[in-house]
Amino acid sequence: MSTPQRTRPAPPTQLRIGLWGPPGSGKTTFLAALQIATMRRTSEDSGNWIMTGSDEASSMFLQESLHQLTSTREFPRSTTNDRNLVFRFTGRQEVPRPRGLLKKKVTEIERVAFELDVLDVPGVKYDSDFSRPDTRPPLDEDDDFDAGGATVDSVYASPDALAEREERLLDHLQMCDGIVYLFDPERDAREQDAFRYFHPVLGKLASRVLEQDRHNNAQLPHHVAVCVTKFDQPNIYRLARVRGFTVQGAEPPYLPRIPDEAAADFFKMLCATPGSNTDLVERGLRQYFATLNYFVTSSIGFYVADNRFRPHDFLNVERVGPGPSDFKIKGRAYPINVLEPLLWLHQSISAARS
Ligand SMILES: Nc1nc2c(ncn2[C@@H]2O[C@H](COP(=O)(O)OP(=O)(O)OP(=O)(O)O)[C@@H](O)[C@H]2O)c(=O)[nH]1
Ligand SMILES: [Mg+2]
């Protein structure tokens, strides 16, 4: 007698993703907010996703960062050490399948799982001057561990060790299927340094990839999710609203957002600051990568009281001291477009593989 066969879910797709952005652009907070984003997602937003850590360090990161963002309402500390994290996303999605003799397309709900393998690096590593010891940033005295509890082998090291770390970053990016590129408009308006943290690594990555390319590609194979961060910052939100980029959510808490189709134009507008080289970041991304998508994001979102966004009281951070990083999160975190870039990367990379 034959035993009934149970169809096993397919093993999770593996996605290697690099996070790219200057120091303080919001890379670690973006990762920290991912789990809240999956929890806040309603099933109408095309599916329910569960996020888990695939190893102990990653589970620990999720636990600690969830506690930080929700209970102590603190932001993660600046990253001092490379940290490899692996998260698994399990959900359901609609998949069109050919059925019957006529191969008519029928939509089926399928369990999907993918594993996100990400390297969170200190943003300072993307600086062309990073390997010059005299220009490296000062390290706080108490900076001997980061939010994930990893001990520091420190950003200070011998030139050889620094060169080795740059190689490691390039090795990682080269092996990535996708990149989340984070652009912090407020930082760039102040420092005008997005290009400085963009072109050295891009140049080295491009020469490595294109030298070894056997398919005569003219562009890099990575799929890139370009994310404008900190949309909740008053200057950025107001600018978006005044220029007509925002729409209001139809469901409570009626959060404003920038529709995906307008995100590329908003990014382009932000990059056009006269006197800076940031326009070259926008052009460079399009020139070097063929598969791009744009998102306007916020890891903590806007302040919501009584399940409602209020245009006169939307700031979700509050100052708790005089220092440059003495900020706390005021209310609940409502991440905006944090999970979406990863879901897009998953879809886009899987489609390119099949
Ligand atoms: N308003 C607002 N501030 C944010 C958001 N995300 C991050 N921040 C602020 O930006 C700071 C830096 O964020 P991080 O996530 O540490 O940035 P990072 O890119 O990981 O920085 P490095 O580790 O130094 O490279 C935080 O301490 C917050 O003050 C956001 O969504 N909204
Ligand atoms: Mg960080």
TrEMBL record:
Extent of Basic and acidic residues compositional bias: 129-139
Gene3D superfamilies given in the database record: P-loop containing nucleotide triphosphate hydrolases
InterPro entries, per the entry: P-loop_NTPase
Recorded superkingdom: Bacteria
Residue numbers spanned by region Disordered: 129-148
Protein name as annotated: Uncharacterized protein
Species of origin: Goodfellowiella coeruleoviolacea
